[in-house]
Each structure stands twice: as C-alpha cells, then as structure tokens.
C-alpha cells in the first residue's frame, strides 16, 4: 500500500515569508568595459535575479502581500491587472506559490515567450488589441472589474501605491548600502514609473542631493517594451512629475546597439529596456567629472527571442 504523506498546513504569513525570501536583494554590477571614465563609475542592479525574473517582482510582491493581509484575495477571488508582460509574470509566479488565481489583460502582440510562461503558470489571459498597447489593456481590466467586482481584486499597478513603495522600501536601501552611500545619480526609464518614483524618493531620504534622471522613448512608436512615451500615453497615477531633475529621451535603435555591445564586452545578455537604461546612465556619466551613477537592468534577454534574432542578425 502506498503511504500518503500529510504536510502540516502553512499559514498565509508563512507563505508570504517564503515567497518574500526570493524577492529583492539583487546584485549591483559595475560596468567596466562598455564605459570607462576616470572618477566616474556606473553600476546596474541585475533585477532578473529574483522570482518572476524581473524588476517587477518587487512591486508585484508588495501588492500581493498587502492584498492578502487586507483580505482582498480571499474566497477564490482572482488577482486582476493589465500588463505588458513582466509584472504579469511576477504576479503569476508568486501567486502560483501562494495558490491565488490570476487574470491578466495583455496586448496580443506580447512576445511568445511571455505568453508561454503565463500559460505555464496557469494564468487566465485576456488579450487586447496590439494597437492600443498597455493603455488598452488597462481599459479592459477596468471594464472586467467594473462588471464583476466580486470575482476580482483589481491590483491596478499603475495607480497602486504599493508599487512605488516596494522600491522605496527595498531598492533604494539596497543601492545605498551596496554603494556605501556613494551614489550620486539614479537613472531609470518610465513605464509604470514605480521603479523611478520609489527608488528616487527612497534615495533622496538618504541624501537629498542625489540627482534623479528619468528616461523615456524619443517617440510614441518605440520598441522599448514596458516603457511609456508620457506625452502620448495614459500617465500612471503613481508618477510624481516633480521628482525628476530632468528627463532624457532614448532611441530604440541605439538601445539595440547597446544590447549587442553589452553581450560582446560585458558578457551580459539583457533586454532592450535594460540597455536603454544603460544608455541613459552613460549620457549622465559623460556629463560629470566625478560620481557614482546607478541604474537598473529590468530583465535579461530570455523573453525576447524575436527581438534578439533581429538585433544579432
């Protein structure tokens, strides 16, 4: 007769603790070959090294953790949100471990890797028009929640303060500690704007003189997945326009060139948006004589096979 194993029930708080051990605490990598300038150093946080595989693991966990504690995800209610992919994958991975169902509104032109990963993690995917991007996905998520409020907890990453607070509470202190308080500039692209807003506010608590530089695509028809051209997009409610000392525009093709250069010179295969962050950091570093510039590499190249084929062919 086959023995049946019985495991003791695990409390919600213990489940949260176990998943939380896999979030954050990412390494800070110094750029040594792609950029060199005496007196100036550039570092990037390797954010794919956590559950869910991207920088979005931090806000996803903070949103889920607080929703559980506030009773929003009880009774089989689905976590619902709009995503271009990375936040959705972070939700899916963490909710799978926490046994929480997930429904995501996703533009139909999301990469095949993202779709496969989400399907593998058991997500109910609602596809939206490729022409409407994440703005269209947001509108669909709001419609679903409006028509079925008892079925869903609408996470709304673009307006949820737990998004930026995740970076305020974890990313900023990590950067401060890892640079021994020497960071002088923080540079990051704008998507949901949570990384820039939360990390910027947190770093300013440590040193109000740290310069905060935001990045956005140089035109609405860009190829930087997850980024927003704020002048032509729905601006996230969590975005604080007073925070950035300045905003720099980044060219998509230049980011593709940087993907190649990082692979060949640093041995890092990163996403176009990560390469775009580095382009912005280099622009800042070229303007100063001394300083420590920090950015984030949101994810690696694992979910971008079509783009990578284009870049490396």
Question: What's this model, at a glance?
Answer:
By secondary structure, the chain is of the alpha/beta class. It contains 10 helices and 10 strands.
Walk me through what this model shows:
The protein is an alpha/beta fold and 313 residues long. It folds into 2 domains: 21-55 and 161-312, Rossmann fold; 57-154, Rossmann fold (3-Layer(aba) Sandwich), CATH 3.40.50. The chain has helices spanning 12-20, 57-69, 86-98, 112-120, 133-147, 161-178, 194-206, 252-266, 272-287, 305-312; strands at residues 28-30, 40-46, 78-82, 102-107, 124-128, 152-154, 185-189, 211-217, 246-250, 291-297. The strands form 2 sheets. It has a 6-stranded mixed sheet with strand order 1-2-10-7-8-9, sandwiched between helices. Strands 5-4-3-6 form a 4-stranded parallel sheet, sandwiched between helices. Helix 3 (86-98) links the parallel strand 3 and strand 4. The model has no long low-confidence stretch (mean pLDDT 94).
Distance between the termini: 58 Å
CATH class descriptor name of the largest domain: Alpha Beta
Helix content: 40-55%
Helix and strand run: HEEHEHEHEHEHEHEEHHEH
Strand order of the largest sheet: 1-2-10-7-8-9
Strand content: 15-25%
Rg, rounded, reads: 19 Å
Question: Which topology of the largest domain does CATH recognise?
Answer: Rossmann fold
